[in-house]
Amino acid sequence: MSADTSLTPHDPYAALRIPDFRRLVLARVCFTVATRVQGLVVAWQIFRLTNDPLALGFIGLAEALPSIGVSLYAGHVADSVKRKNIIIVTVTVLLLCAAALWALASPLGLPLLAKGSFYTLPLYIVIFISGIARGFLGPALFSFMPQLLPNREKLANAITWNSTTYQASAVLGPAIGGYLVAHLGVANSYAVATALLLLALLQFAGIASRPLPPREGEKLSLQESVLSGLKFIFSNQLVLAALALDMFAVLFGGAVALLPVFAVDILHVGAAGLGHLEAAPAVGSVLMAVALTYFPLKRHAGRKLLWAVAGFGAATIAFALSTNFWLSLGLLFLTGVFDSVSVIVRSTLIHTYTPEYMKGRVSAVNNIFIGSSNEIGAFESGAAAKLMGVVPSVVFGGIMTILVVLFTTWRADKLRSLDMTPKKPEPVS
């Protein structure tokens, strides 16, 4: 066996050796840190203005509704327009939204944000606009990444590094955001987020554009093209089961939207402690993703996915019942470890089973299933906390997650038997 064939498939840094992929990774790091800082600051600011957990839920709803509303059309656009152009436009819009939040938190904008939920309306308007931009960005970014790779041999490695660097920046974002809010205030925190988004935009601009993949004889009307992603997902039992499992787990099992309440009223750790709580799941995700870079999931990947989501639900229940800060950190860390398995398996399935020319549309459906379920899950958490109390609502979510796993295990036989063994490399369009 030659040196190339024996070493290349096991090279954990294969994707990072590609210059444009490195630029994409750096851009995503800046972008993710910026949006995580901004998300934490918005949640902290709105909770301080309203002292209402339901107001935190409305943050997620304000972003999810426009994102869902444009997703199917955004997928069509991502398969019809050069994907880099979409990325540049949408990141520019998000940069302007960050600047607007900065302006609203400045001395000139503060009179608009007096105490009371009505006066948080300007913040929700900016979040709504950013939700539209993210609805278009997600499919374009998802489908652009494989185009930077020379062949499918590096695809699994690229997916893992994509997840690893995303989670690493998700660690930095809340920690930085918590520190900035505690020591420099809300306005300066938004200023940092704005600067990081500008850096991300510059890195995205430095990536060479790629032509759209050939559509391989596909001739669809606009309506057929918009709906084709849904048809593809619902005709593939394996991908549908993985997406549905992840969606319902995130919808019911996420406690992240209520972390400001835990930080202030239950654990009594303030803004700095909130940053650590926000970062803990991402720390676990990073470490697991790094481990999967060196030891990728192959045998019994479906069973491991099911156990991981069940573990996510159990750790969520234990977190809800904890009143010790360090124990809570550890349990949130475990939710990140379990979630990382789900993210990587789901991303690998979608990239593997979806033709290149359809990835924008299929990614749009993925965003509806997963991306928006984070925001809708935030609303569900806030509404449940309002009705049931904070701790009971999170316990309920964890129990529902475990029930979803049991149902999926019963119904999705293909997912139970899933193995992720390497396939013969194919060129990426």
From TrEMBL:
GO terms for molecular function: transmembrane transporter activity. GO terms for cellular component: plasma membrane. Residues 1-416 form the Major facilitator superfamily (MFS) profile domain. Gene3D superfamilies: MFS general substrate transporter like domains. It is a multi-pass membrane protein. The chain crosses the membrane at residues 25-47, 53-74, 86-104, 124-144, 165-184, 190-209, 238-259, 279-297, 304-327, 390-410. It is found in: Cell membrane. Keywords: Cell membrane, Membrane, Transmembrane, Transmembrane helix, Transport. InterPro entries: MFS, MFS_dom, MFS_trans_sf. Pfam families: MFS_1. PANTHER family: ENTEROBACTIN EXPORTER ENTS (PTHR23513:SF9), INTEGRAL MEMBRANE EFFLUX PROTEIN-RELATED (PTHR23513). Belongs to the major facilitator superfamily. Drug:H(+) antiporter-3 (DHA3) (TC 2.A.1.21) family. This is Multidrug efflux pump Tap.
